[in-house]
């Protein structure tokens, strides 16, 4: 149960609505000309061709000390009152990590430094939302397994750097998921590389 599960190839339907929302478009409020829509969709297709979604996930039992300390099996503690409250009565968590790979970041950086800044903005938004959607894909995969155990995942998830869970906890996430195996490294300032890489925590609880 505690082993890391790796996903070498994740395929998802592009979350167009979320991508457009990240770009600042609001349904019924922001308009797009036919030409702008074609160009935007073309850029999203380009992002898809450059993204190589991979992921990792790991189930771990936890115990709590007080209202702000979550103890993992190796003795490492996640200190966060908000995360502890979020997990509630869960005695197990799911750690997840996904990455879009290095090619999309190279394209974004090239566009941002050149004459195709507009496309670079779309590539960036698409990569962010698609990488995040891969977490949903992994959660869905584990939900199927958990149903057979009469358990379920919490609907939301929590990330290092959010609320009072300090960003430095990203090191713990990176280590426990052995993210180097899917090409993700971490800097001294706890930034994941490639940049379009994310980690998250959610709780596992008994089904009602």
Radius of gyration (Å): 18 Å
As a percent range, the share of helical residues equals 25-40%
Q: What shape does the CA trace take?
A: globular
Question: H/E order of the elements?
Answer: EHHEEEEHEHHEHEEE
Task: Compute the number of helices.
Answer: 6
Layout of strands and helices, then pairs:
Elements: E1 5-7, H1 16-22, H2 34-50, E2 54-61, E3 63-65, E4 69-71, E5 77-79, H3 81-87, E6 92-99, H4 102-113, H5 117-148, E7 151-153, H6 170-176, E8 185-186, E9 192-193, E10 197-206
Antiparallel strand pairs: 1-2, 2-6, 3-4, 4-5, 6-10, 7-10, 8-9
Give a structural overview.
With 208 residues, the protein is an alpha+beta fold. It has one domain: 3-Layer(aba) Sandwich (NADH Oxidase). 39% of the residues lie in helices and 22% in strands. The protein contains 6 helices and 10 strands, in the order E-H-H-E-E-E-E-H-E-H-H-E-H-E-E-E. The protein has helices at 16-22, 34-50, 81-87, 102-113, 117-148, 170-176, and strands spanning 5-7, 54-61, 63-65, 69-71, 77-79, 92-99, 151-153, 185-186, 192-193, 197-206. Strands 1-2-6-10-7 form a 5-stranded antiparallel beta sheet. Helix 2 crosses helix 5 (117-148) and helix 4 runs antiparallel to helix 5. The longest helix has 32 residues, at 117-148. The mean pLDDT is 93.
């Amino acid at each position: 149960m505690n082993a890391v599960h790796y996903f070498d190839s994740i395929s998802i339907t592009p979350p167009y609505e979320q991508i457009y929302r990240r770009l600042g478009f609001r349904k019924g409020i922001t308009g797009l000309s036919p030409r702008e829509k074609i160009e935007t969709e073309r850029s999203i297709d380009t992002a898809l061709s450059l993204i190589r979604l991979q992921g990792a996930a790991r189930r771990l039992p936890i115990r709590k000390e007080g209202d702000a300390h979550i103890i993992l099996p190796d003795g490492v503690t996640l200190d966060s009152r908000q995360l502890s409250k979020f997990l509630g009565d869960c005695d197990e968590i799911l750690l997840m990590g996904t990455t879009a790979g290095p090619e999309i970041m190279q394209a974004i950086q090239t566009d941002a430094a050149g004459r195709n800044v507009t496309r670079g903005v779309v590539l960036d938004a698409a990569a962010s939302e698609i990488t995040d959607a891969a977490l949903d894909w992994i959660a869905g995969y584990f939900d199927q397994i958990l149903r057979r155990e009469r358990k379920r995942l919490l609907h939301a998830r929590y990330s290092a750097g959010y609320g009072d869970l300090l960003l430095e906890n990203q090191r713990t996430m990176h280590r426990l998921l052995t993210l180097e195996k899917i090409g993700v490294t971490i800097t001294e300032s706890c930034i994941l590389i490639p940049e379009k890489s994310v980690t998250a925590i959610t709780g596992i609880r008994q089904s009602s």
